[in-house]
Amino acid sequence: MSSRPIDVAVVGGGMGGLCAAIGLLKHPNLRVQIYEAAHQFSEIGAGVAVGPNAQRALKLIGDSTEAAYLRLATHNKWEKHANTFFEYRMGMGEKEGELIVAPKNETGQATVHRAKFLEEFIKLVPKEVCHFGKRLDRIEELEGGRIRLHFHDASTAEADCVIGADGIHSVVRKHLLGDDPAANAVFTGSVAYRGLVPMENAVAEIGEEFATNSFIWCGDGASVTTYPVDEGKTFNIVAINSSYEKWEGPSVVKADYSKIAHEFGGWGEHVTKIIKLLDTDETAAWSMWDMPPASTYCARTIAMIGDAAHACLPFQGQGAGQSIEDAFVIESVLGLVEKPEELAYAFRAYDRIRRRRTQEVVKTSREMGEILALRLPAIKNNLDAFKENVQWRMDWMWHRDVDGERREAEIVFNRLRKGQSID
């Protein structure tokens, strides 16, 4: 056993970074510090989906993280929609309004307000381990195995290992992958128009059932997702045009409503009413990016989690969930480390268990966008094939044994510790 706690630096204080830090704080062998680029913890966006798999991971990280979720979770309002994830319906053409599929799970559609969820997590982390205004510039690997972090404000910090939770523009990822093209996120051809509307306005426009429960409207080259957030006080709209060829400029910009109205001009009456609700100054256009598959999520005593490792499109509601699963597995295996020389084994175990699943989620999330836009070659307008595919993929996503992943990672770690092969 090491004579001192092992220093763990978590770069990034978003959902994945905070979940990892909260888990790491349980282990007396570890000393955790969080370095956040912003001057305070913050999240942009409104609703974030928390599927059954993510809910199980939150409980496994700790009772406090599960409790934070339970305090804020917003579900479908109507009893008949209680266990429904989304109702997928046609949004245009002769079959406008037709129900395609309504996959169900034990908790139905569950969302939390992203910023409020983060506020709950912040309460679980001691203030003295949080360092703000620390935008990472570069990583220096020192002789003897320590890591030195160089920040934009000219300050530095050292640790025995680094967990990069620094998002889609990750500096940690670029350090790990170097000149590999996979070091950088790629534009996916989709742009999301996101808006938040007072629930009473949405009910007046489209009726209570459609406003207070979760729906996805599918059509040629695009989709429109709606669901309640913030304990049902707010109606969240995500209208996604999946037919862009390129994106230039900032990744998020103020939206031009006339452009949105034009792009969704051929849709049916119901979606047209939803699109009209986006005619506000607050509506934003978000370019949508994901990560190419990386050859590894770690090197020596540096690893990456969450969007830094596997940013994905939102079509399966798994971005936050995969970050939370990562956090649970990585904090669990680091809890077994007795000396700095074993850190690389822990990160290799994490990589071995998490990389395949998360990269499959990235791939299938892209596919799901194509399904919703009615242009996946094997499905297109075949609604029976649509139904079968969506039901299968969501079952695969939700029913992962997250604690089983932890056990597998611990087995890999112990084999590496003993000098045994894992191939």
From TrEMBL:
Gene3D superfamilies: FAD/NAD(P)-binding domain. GO terms for biological process: secondary metabolite biosynthetic process. Keywords: FAD, Flavoprotein, Oxidoreductase. Residues 7-364 form the FAD-binding domain. InterPro entries: FAD-bd, FAD/NAD-bd_sf, FAD_monoxygenase. The keyword Oxidoreductase applies. The keyword Thylakoid does not apply. One of its GO terms (molecular function) is FAD binding. It comes from the Eukaryota. This is FAD-binding domain-containing protein. The lineage of its organism: Eukaryota, Fungi, Dikarya, Ascomycota, Pezizomycotina.
